[in-house]
Amino acid sequence: MGGYEPVLLSNVGLEGSRTLAVYCARGGYQAARRAVTSMSPQQVVDLVKASDLRGRGGAGFRVGVKWGLLPPGREITYLCVNFDESEPGTFNNRYLVDHDPHQLLEGIVIAAHATQARTAYVYLRAEFCETFHVLQRAVDEAYAAGLLGKGLFGTSMSLDCHIHRGAGAYVCGEETGLIESLEGKRGWPRIKPPYPAASGAFGRPTVVNNVESLCCVVHIVARGSGWFRSLGPPGSSGPKLYTVSGPVNRPGCYEAPLGLSVRELVFGDAYARGMIGNRKVKGVIPGGLSVGILSADELDCRLDFDDPQRYGLLGLGTAGAIVINEDTDMRDVLVNVARFYARESCGQCTQCREQTDWLHKIARRIAAGAGRIEDLDLMESLTRTMGMMEGQSICGLPDGANYAIRTLVSKYRAEFERHIQAQRPGSVEETLSGNNRSVYRLPVLAQEAANRKW
Ligand SMILES: Cc1cc2nc3c(=O)[nH]c(=O)nc-3n(C[C@H](O)[C@H](O)[C@H](O)COP(=O)(O)O)c2cc1C
Ligand code: SF4
User: Fold this and answer.
1) Are residues 314 and 447 in the same domain?
2) What is the residue-level pLDDT of the chain in tens, covering all 454 positions?
3) Which of 117, 172, 176, 209 has its CB 3.0 to 4.6 Å from that of 79, i.e. a possible disulfide?
């Protein structure tokens, strides 16, 4: 992807990039002005449809199509910006807003015009304290400059924008969990239908979009749908932010068109520049945890909306890559991953609540040195019987658990088997309780149990 000029990150690194003055000096809010003053809402929807922009929040739903699903003749519409960004390994939304908050606000103005929303809520991940202040300052500046509030760009359009801080639950990134939480209720996903477009926040038609999706909209209005479609492979149009963390030389957030290979992201000079100390890659979780893992010989996988599936992954996800080196014990990875889903399950669906918990218990048994070969088969079979895709649950959290755990177990099975076969004698029984829901007997090696931090 050599020679590519960043668009989403074009203001990053400039002095004062968070300020309205710098943003406007670089052409900021011109796209919003054009959309609001010279395009009808339907024209903006059609333009975004023509760009083939697919949502950057994980599911890849087409943004223009989603906007087109709002019922005609509605009185009130809400725009919810999904800035929960709790997917492990993912920080592209935060990076964008930390450096260039007005880009998001401009995207919000355009999306509100297209959907005829007069109130926008930015649902912000609880832990993003600094980001909250950055964004709030930008909102205040926009109000003071008449870019939010009443009579935008001399038209009759009004728009209010509120930042709503979450309380730290992964499942509140799921759009209906987000809406419940926004309404002040316990943040757990709703049964669908109705989808938010028909009945979302406060029972009104609602659009939920990711931060990066809305930033892309700014550039579609500014540069046209043809420009957007010219980037990336067919079906995966436009620029994308990729984040990289782990033992690489240059972790960070990078921009390239969709379709960048994982190898280039990890080793390319413009990206992470290889492994610290030249250690070997053992695996890469390329799209946020929930898409699953690529083994060391699968790094040619392209990060677009189609290629990851050829490697047994759930999809592109968030394009937040976690790199794992040869020194890592995959039993520790397995425990970490399983613990995450067990803790984050909101508990309303039996399969999700119970099976994520059991997967965590089995992973701990293996890590503690008392696993059985049949545990690997048991884990695989448990992962295959839960999730929205299996028709067993309300939301997609257990689908993420499924792909994350199943690909780990299947791609590193030989390593798990080696550990299991090497460790039988000396295991002891220990009583553990999982989330206070059940108490069970778990055989563990006493020394392992003493050393490991779960
Ligand atoms: C468990 C779970 C967590 C999610 N977390 C996020 C998130 O943090 N941010 C996000 O944009 N989408 C997240 N999503 C996807 C949202 O439900 C929704 O598809 C997305 O916000 C739509 O925006 P987009 O079409 O612009 O991508 C999550 C989905 C699930 C099932
Ligand atoms: S699938 Fe899991 S996280 Fe999603 S609603 Fe059901 S119990 Fe909650």
Assistant:
1) no
2) 667 999 999 999 999 999 999 999 999 999 999 999 999 999 999 999 999 999 999 999 999 999 999 999 999 999 999 999 999 999 999 999 999 999 999 999 999 999 999 999 999 999 999 999 999 999 999 999 999 999 999 999 999 999 999 999 999 999 999 999 999 999 999 999 999 999 999 999 999 999 999 999 999 999 999 999 999 999 999 999 999 999 999 999 999 999 999 999 999 999 999 999 999 999 999 999 999 999 999 999 999 999 999 999 999 999 999 999 999 999 999 999 999 999 999 999 999 999 999 999 999 999 988 899 999 999 999 999 988 888 889 999 999 999 999 999 999 999 999 999 987 555 544 434 444 334 344 444 455 555 555 4
3) 117
Domain boundary among 292, 325, 358: 325
Do 258 and 151 reside in the same domain of the chain? no
Is the CB–ligand 2 distance for residue 352 below 6 Å? yes
- Residue 130 falls within a domain, yes or no? yes
CA-CA distance, 387 to 25, in Å (whole number)?
48
41 and 74 co-located in one domain = yes
Residues 443 and 420 in one domain: yes
Q: Is 416 helix (H, G, I), strand (E, B) or coil?
A: helix
Q: What is the pTM of this model?
A: 0.93
Ligand 1 mean position, distance from CA 254 (Å):
21
The two three-digit tokens of residue 73, written as one number:
């003749």
Residue 12 located in a structural domain: no
399 within ligand 1 shell (Cβ under 6 A): no
Query: For the chain, how many structural domains are there in total?
Result: 3
Alpha-carbon distance values, 32 to 1, 48, 96 (Å): 29, 14, 18
Which of 61, 62, 82 to mutate to test ligand 1, by most ligand atoms within 8 A of the CB atom?
A: 82
Task: Quote the Cα angle for 244-189-174, to 5°.
Answer: 20
User: Is 200 close to ligand 1, i.e. is its CB under 6 Å away?
Assistant: no
- Domain stop point among 199, 229, 259: 229
CB of 92 closer than 6 angstroms to any ligand 1 atom: no
Whether residue 13 is contained in a domain is answered as no
Q: Which of 214, 6, 206, 209 is nearest to 102 (CA)?
A: 214
The ligand 2 atom at the shortest distance from the C-alpha of residue 346 is 8
CATH code assigned at 337: 1.20.1440.230
Tell me which ligand sits closest to the C-alpha of residue 398: 2
The reply to whether ligand 2 has any atom less than 6 angstroms from the CB of 353 is: yes
Same domain, 179 and 261: no
From the CA of 356, the nearest ligand is: 2
Asked whether 401 lines ligand 2 (CB < 6 A), one says no
**Contact indicator for 442, 452 with CB cutoff of 8 Å:** no
Question: Which domain range does residue 443 map to?
Answer: 330-451
Place of tokens 């929205």: 388
98 and 151 both lie in a single domain: yes
